[in-house]
Amino acid sequence: MVLGNIVLDDTTVANGQGPGLVEDGASYASTTGDVVQWNDDTYYGLTTRTILTGGPMRIAYDTPSTDASFTMAAFDGFPDTILVEVYDSGGSLIFSTSVATPDSTPVPFSHSAADIGSIVLTGPTNGWSPNIDDHEYSAGFSFSITGPCPGQVTVATNGGTPNGNVAFVTGSSLGSFNVNAGPCAGIVLGLQGNVTLRAIRAADAAGAISFPATANAAICGRLYAQAVDLTTCATSNVVFIQ
Questions:
Q1: What is the set of domains in the chain, with CATH numbers?
Q2: Other Cβ atoms within 10 Å of 208 Cβ, number
């Protein structure tokens, strides 16, 4: 069944179904702008419900993941060898391999890394992606700022090192900034322009942080913020303060 949607995520409503068609935290889309297809079991030999895209499929994570696993399958009669490319949250290729999908039998794939931002799956023979199922991934190190700006907001992180320190930084725009000093020298942030360390806070025993802060009118709609786990040097998603 063709969903008619360019992007499939947990908010998607297609053909009267949804939201919640897939788990929160990841989205699925074709790199060529084709629609997403939902395939039922028994279709061309498939044994479970799967998703597929015309052209290569990009799986993008809302926050950087540290591990990802899923199964890939072809339609019976349409074998392919899938090029799997793993990118970090900055868009740099960090791993690639080829995986044969001879038929509808699911073939497992998994990869672990400090920062998995997206995965692209290309089926060069048939021109469409593999059928994807059983997708599991870590929530990663996530960061949020909620509340009115200007006003009192709540700054929070999840997925950090238990009892570890987290640094909070801001910049004037999206981009890249090389950290050249401190415990995480060598990492690249996803922001740039007047990059400033705003605070360092300790996570609780579950690796989470939550604290109130005042957002004044001078920063609303003008700054981007990011968190860094100072133990693992994992970087969070970038948040626009608005």
A1: 7-137 (2.60.120), 142-241 (2.60.40)
A2: 15
